[in-house]
Automatic annotation (TrEMBL):
It is found in: Cell membrane; Membrane. This is P-type Zn(2+) transporter. Pfam families: E1-E2_ATPase, Hydrolase. Keywords: ATP-binding, Cell membrane, Membrane, Metal-binding, Nucleotide-binding, Translocase, Transmembrane, Transmembrane helix. Residues 7-25 have a biased composition (Basic and acidic residues). Residues 1-26 are annotated as: Disordered. Belongs to the cation transport ATPase (P-type) (TC 3.A.3) family. Type IB subfamily. It catalyses: Zn(2+)(in) + ATP + H2O = Zn(2+)(out) + ADP + phosphate + H(+). The chain crosses the membrane at residues 36-57, 63-81, 93-111, 117-134, 266-286, 298-319, 596-616, 622-641. InterPro entries: ATPase_P-typ_cyto_dom_N, ATPase_P-typ_P_site, ATPase_P-typ_TM_dom_sf, ATPase_P-typ_transduc_dom_A_sf, ATPase_P-type_domA, Cation_Transport_ATPase_IB, HAD-like_sf, HAD_sf. Residues 148-247 form the P-type ATPase A domain. GO terms for cellular component: plasma membrane. Its EC number is 7.2.2.12. It comes from Algibacter lectus.
Length: 650
C-alpha cells in the first residue's frame, strides 16, 4: 500500500471521511454506515441463500438460485472485478484483485455459488477493517483551516476594500488589523509594527520593526492597525513559496508499501500457474484423467488460495496499533507510517514549540543595589505602559505587584522606554538605550544569549531581567529515552538565533544544532541527511516553516496542540498533547504493532500453506478453506486486541 498524504481540508467529519484504498475500493462520501451497506447486503443474502439450500426449498433452484447468489455477489465482488480489470489494462495482471476475481467467478462456473460469495465477502470485510483503521486516525484530527490569508484589505478609489490576495497588484496599499495575517509581502508604511513571525521563521520572540522595513505574508500583526505597500504578487509571496515547497517535498517523499501488496506480486502468479498445473499436468500422470474433475479441483485450489486471512489479519494488527496510539494521544494518518516509525534511526527536531513551550517567562532577576521586590516595582510600573510580549512576561511576576505609577513615559524606537516612577528617572530597554545614556552595565550581560531587559534608575544601572522560552517538562527525558530506543542521531534545526539554539541543545545533550535557518535551509539539511540511504529520518516540528521538512522526511511528526495548520496537515503523525516524549511512545507502539502483524502473517500464511496442499490433493473443499480462514481471522483479532491492553512508558 502506497504512502499517501491526507488532505485534511477535504475531511468533513469522521463519519464522512472517504477511504480510498490504494488500488482498492472507494467507499464513497456517505456516512460510515453506508460504507458497510454492500457487505451487509451480501452477508444477509448469503445467509438467506444458505438457509434455503439447507432446507431444500423447492422454488430455490436453477436460474433463481443462480440469480440470488449472483446478486449477493455483486455488492462486494463488482468493485474487485472492476479493479482487477483496470489493473490488467495498465499491464499489472497478477494482482490480488485478479486472483479474487478468477477464483470466485470460477466457483460460480463449477456451481459453488455460496462459496464464491463467501470468499469475496471475507475479502470485503478485510477492506473494511483497513478503512476503519485509517478513518479512525482521520476522525481524531480536526478539520483544519487553510493557512493562507483569505482576503486583503486594499486601498482603492479612496477607501479600503476586501479582495482576494491574488487580485492585489504590486504597489497597492493594504491595511492589516490587529490579529490579522499579512496577506502579501511588502514594505511597512506605518511608523512601527510588532509581528509574530514564528510560523515563518521559528523565531520565538515577536519581531518589532520600523517604517520601510520588509514584512512577509503569513506574519501576524500583534499591536495596532498597520499599512503595507505590496512588493510582490501573491504567487511570489513567502507563504506561497513555503506551500509550494510542501507540495514538491511531498512528491519526493519515499513511498511505503504494506506487506500484502508486495507479497501478492509473488504469491498471485505462483498460485495461478499452480492452478493451471493442477488442471493439465495430471493428464500426463493419471490414467483416468477427466478434464472437468481436475478443473473443478484447480478452481477449489484457487478459492483456497485467496489471501482472505492475510488481507484481514494484517490490517487488524495495524488497526490495533492505530487505536492504541490514539488512546495515548498519538495520531497516525495510516498504517504505513506505523511501519516507517519502526525503522527510524535519525531524528531531526525544531526548537520553538517542539522542545520549548513557545511562551516567554522570567528566567532570572538580578537587582544591583536594590531589593528585588522594590526593583521589580519600578520595572513593572514602566512595563504596564507597554503591550509588548516581553512586558507581559514581566508583569506576570508573582510577588506583591506594584503600587507605583509611571508618568511621562515615552518609547525610544528600537531601544526601549524612559519615564518617571516614584519621582525617579527610569530607563528600561536594551544595551543601545544604556549606551546612549552613558550608563555602564555589567560585563556578564554581554554573554547572556536570551532576551534581556536592562534597567537604570536615576542614571545608575539597577539590574536586569532575563526573559526566556522554557523547556517543556519532558524535553530532557525525551532525548535520553530516544537514545535508549535506538535513535542514535539527533539534530536540532531552528529559525531562532543560533546562540539560543546552541544553548538549548546543550541543555538537552544534543550534539548537532543549527540556528538562524530559513525553511529552505532546514529542507536542505534534511536532504543532505537523506543522501545516506542508511538514514531513516523523522522530523518533529510545529510551525509553517517546518512543513516542507515534515513532508520530505520519512516520517513527519507535528505537534497537534500548538502546531500550525499546514504542519499538522503535512505531517504523518500528530502528537495531540504537544509532549515530545510521545515520540518515544510512538516508536514503542509501532514496534509492538509490527511484531503482532508479523505474528498474524505467520499464522495466516502457515494455515494457508497447509490447506493449499490439502486442496491440491482433493482433501479439502472450499467451505473448509473458508472456515479455516475464519478461524485464523478470529485468532488474529484476539492477537490484535492485545495491543489495546498493552502499556508503554514514555
Amino acid at each position: 500500500m502506497k504512502k499517501k498524504k491526507v488532505n485534511l481540508r477535504d475531511l468533513k467529519s469522521a463519519s464522512e471521511a472517504q477511504h480510498t484504498h490504494d488500488g482498492g475500493h472507494n467507499h464513497g462520501n456517505g456516512s460510515a454506515f453506508k460504507t458497510y451497506v454492500p457487505a451487509i447486503i451480501s452477508f444477509a443474502m448469503l445467509m438467506i441463500g444458505i438457509c434455503l439450500d439447507y432446507f431444500d426449498v423447492s422454488f430455490f433452484k436453477d436460474w433463481i438460485r443462480i440469480a440470488w447468489y449472483g446478486i449477493a455477489y455483486l455488492p462486494v465482488g463488482l468493485p474487485v472485478v472492476k479493479e482487477g480489470w483496470e489493473s490488467i489494462k495498465k499491464g499489472d495482471v497478477f494482482t490480488e484483485f485478479f486472483l479474487m476475481s478468477i477464483a470466485t467467478i470460477g466457483a460460480f462456473i463449477i456451481g459453488e455459488y455460496p462459496e464464491g460469495v463467501a470468499v469475496m465477502l471475507f475479502y470485503a470485510v478485510g477492506e473494511l477493517f483497513q478503512a476503519a483503521a485509517v478513518n479512525r486516525a482521520k476522525g481524531n484530527i480536526k478539520v483544519l483551516l487553510d493557512v493562507r490569508p483569505k482576503e486583503a484589505n486594499v486601498f482603492r478609489e479612496g477607501d479600503y476594500k476586501n479582495v482576494s490576495p491574488e487580485d492585489v497588484n504590486i504597489g497597492e496599499k493594504i491595511q492589516i488589523r490587529v490579529g490579522e495575517k499579512i496577506p502579501l509581502d511588502g514594505i511597512l508604511l506605518s511608523e512601527k509594527a510588532s509581528l509574530n513571525t514564528a510560523a515563518l521563521t521559528g523565531e520565538s520572540k515577536p519581531d518589532s520593526i520600523q517604517k520601510e522595513a520588509k514584512v512577509y505574508a503569513g506574519s501576524i500583526n500583534l499591536e495596532s492597525v498597520i499599512e503595507v505597500e505590496v512588493t510582490s504578487k501573491f504567487e511570489d509571496s513567502s507563504i506561497a513559496r513555503i506551500l509550494d515547497m510542501v507540495q514538491n517535498a511531498t512528491a519526493r517523499k519515499s513511498k511505503t508499501e504494506l506487506f500484502i501488496r508486495q507479497f501478492a506480486r509473488v504469491y498471485t502468479p505462483v498460485v495461478v500457474f499452480l492452478a493451471i498445473g493442477v488442471t493439465f499436468l495430471p493428464y500426463f500422470f493419471v490414467d483416468d484423467y477427466v478434464f472437468r474433475d481436475w478443473l473443478y479441483r484447480a478452481l477449489i485450489f484457487l478459492v483456497i488460495s485467496c489471501p482472505c486471512a492475510l488481507v484481514i489479519s494484517i490490517p487488524l494488527g495495524y488497526f490495533g496499533g492505530l487505536g492504541a496510539a490514539s488512546k495515548n494521544g498519538i495520531l497516525f494518518k495510516g498504517a504505513s507510517f506505523l511501519d516507517a516509525m519502526t525503522k527510524i534511526n535519525t531524528l531531526v527536531m525544531d526548537k520553538t514549540g517542539t522542545v520549548t513551550k513557545g511562551v516567554f517567562k522570567i528566567k532570572e532577576i538580578k537587582a544591583i543595589g536594590w531589593d528585588e521586590k522594590e526593583f521589580m516595582k519600578y520595572l513593572m510600573a514602566m512595563e504596564e505602559q507597554s503591550t509588548h510580549p516581553i512586558a507581559k512576561a514581566i508583569l506576570e511576576y508573582k510577588d506583591e505587584g506594584t503600587d507605583y505609577e509611571a508618568s511621562e513615559v515615552s518609547e525610544i524606537a528600537g531601544k526601549g522606554l524612559k519615564g518617571i516612577v516614584n519621582g525617579k528617572a527610569v530607563l528600561v530597554g536594551n544595551i543601545a538605550l544604556m549606551t546612549a545614556n552613558n550608563i555602564d552595565v555589567l560585563e556578564e550581560t554581554e554573554t547572556i544569549v536570551e532576551s534581556i531587559v536592562l534597567v537604570a534608575i536615576d542614571n545608575k544601572f539597577a539590574g536586569y531581567v532575563v526573559i526566556a522560552d522554557e523547556l517543556k517538562d519532558d524535553a530532557k527525558e525525551t532525548i535520553t529515552a530516544l537514545y535508549k530506543v535506538g535513535v542514535k542521531n539527533i539534530m536540532m534545526l531552528s529559525g531562532d538565533k543560533d546562540s539560543i539554539t546552541q544553548k538549548v541543545a546543550s541543555e538537552l545533550n544534543i550534539e548537532i544544532a543549527k540556528g538562524g535557518l530559513l525553511p529552505e535551509d532546514k529542507l536542505n539539511e534534511v536532504e543532505i541527511l537523506k543522501q545516506n540511504p542508511n538514514n531513516k529520518i523523522a522530523f518533529i516540528g510545529d510551525g509553517i516553516n517546518d512543513a516542507p521538512v515534515l513532508a520530505a522526511s520519512d516520517v513527519g511528526i507535528a505537534m497537534g496542540g500548538l502546531g500550525s495548520d499546514v504542519a499538522i496537515e503535512t505531517a504523518d503523525v500528530i502528537i495531540q498533547t504537544d509532549q515530545p516524549s510521545k515520540v518515544v511512545k510512538a516508536i514503542k507502539i509501532s514496534r509492538s504493532t509490527r511484531k503482532i502483524v508479523w505474528q498474524n502473517i505467520g499464522l495466516a500464511f502457515g494455515v494457508k500453506v497447509i490447506v493449499l496442499i490439502l486442496g491440491a490433493g482433493g482433501l479439502a473443499t472450499m467451505w473448509e478453506a473458508v472456515f479455516a480462514d475464519v478461524g485464523v481471522a478470529l485468532l488474529a483479532i484476539l492477537n490484535a486486541i492485545r495491543l489495546q491492553k498493552m502499556q508503554w512508558k514514555d
